[in-house]
Amino acid sequence: MSGTSTRPALMRGIGIGRGTAVGPVLRMPDPVPEPSDRPSTLAPAEEQARAAQALAATASHLRERGQAAGGTAAEVLDALAMMAEDPALAADVQHRTEDGATAEFAIHAAMTTFRELLAGMGGYLGERAGDLDDVARRAIARLQGLPAPGIPESATPFVLVARDLAPADTATLDLDRVLALITTDGGPTSHTAILAREKGITAIVGASDAAGLVDGDLVLVDAENGTVELDPAQERIDLARQRTATLQAIRAASSGPGRLADGRAVPLLANIGSPESAREAAARGAEGVGLFRTEVLFLGAETAPSVDEQAATYRDVFAQFPGQKVVVRVLDAGADKPLAFLTDQGEENPALGRRGLRALAAHEEVLRDQLTALATAAASSEAHVQVMAPMVSTAAEAKYFRDLAHELGIAVAGVMVEVPSCAIMADHVAANADFLSIGTNDLTQYVFAADRLLGTVSAFQDPWHPAVLRLIEQVGRAGAEHDVPVGICGEAAADPRLALVLVGLGATSLSMSSTSIADVRAELALRTFDEATELAALALGADSAESARAAVADRIASWPPPAI
Amino acid sequence: MADRTLVVASAHGLHARPAALFVRSVTESGCAVQLRKGERSVNAASILGVVSLGIEHGDEVTLTVTGDDDERVLAELTSFLEQDHDA
What is the CATH code for B2-81? Predict the structure, then answer.
């Protein structure tokens, strides 16, 4: 076809993981444009028939997909089908077509009315309001002969190209069919990146040039180098496949605890949020837990669970890690994870509000109960249980938390370093904490004053930026001076090359999604501490995230390849 | 026509899954069913109508069934609403 020859043969983005994949592109359709309220040129009865036909076809299509998928997906899709054929909706649509609206606009307007009704009810129903938009978009796409929105359906495996994936899209992603993901928007902490890391899918995010790819293009996706090659030559494909095989061999060969090539230990821990993820992490060889997000257990609760209920859940998690470390983060409520019993209503700017330890200090009984439940569960378990506080900004807050934890029977109490003031004052904070754990996602968001959940500023959310690395270095130095361990828990630790840099900056343990442990373990095993320090110095001296990445990649490429 | 007033037993009221199951029973019954809470009455075959009533655990609602075999359908739907589907 014309125009394809002008597209770049090589596109760059941020790679997630280190896999490679080759396959044909399928694009996620562009969003269906919102219909305009122009008067219909057809008779009302004809518009009514078009609307009824589109809704019925949408319902039966959703139901078929549900039956094919089975399980909870079937239930979700069936509920969507019920919305499409709802008699109250049909009556509203008919009313609007009788008044001269097009079928498209009648469906859009009727769904909007119901969506606002549901959204106004809040809670679970409010969250389901978005489902109505999905149903409306599907019916409207059908009326206009556009492809159905959402993940494209295909009988054969493909490379999915999208602007970015929403959490709802990821629910219907068939991992047996999707060879790799490429997004044109979104950064390393976007939903797509987090999903890819969790599921071990090869992905490139933020590859803006990939917007030019069309269905059927053959691409080679190389996550390690962050590249997408269009129409790759056979030898490129062979080389990539060979490298994947080599990586898998390294991965398979590297088991056991994390260590550098010179034998220096770097424990590899898991980030978990539930007893199930604790079991997965233990199965994947995590050496313990570096971040147990307890607020996940409380989401949706109107009141804090009782001490006994909490202790039972904690015991379940601790039982997976006998003889190993489990670092429990006390409730981190607020911002994107509000809890009814801790979070103040109506904060203008919740990311900068009374969240984390600030909210717990204001409701100290909740904190006391949680620490008591943790101490109780720890007493009857063989895990080495430690606690840490989120959103600590000052040395005084660190001391407050440590004193309270010690008083309630937990011997090791540290703080998360995610607020810049805490990193800047790390020497004083370290004197008042049993350990430090750097939360790179929030630290990056606060360093750049860029909301990590806002797509338009997602380019700032890059932990490779020397602005973030310099603070991490400062924290690493403070930890070493005070003989306080410095862990990393955040998406940064899951990036194998950045993991090396972090060790070079003074991190003594790394915690990540358990799917990333094998890759990070393999990368660490190839390099000595001196090499990690050398890479860290290169990254620190760079002027941007891109040049930090490039400087590290170039230095690694200059070293002889690892022997298998 | 048959009607009855009853108290909803599901722990989380008539939301989401219990609502979907209820609407399906109504559709399959072939009868015209109205569900009323307070001043508002909706077609019980409409999932959107049913959830828009915002029925919580312990709310009093009235079912009105019109059609063949209305007494039997009313009895079935009543027993559905008087069970806890979130248990």
Answer: 3.30.1340.10
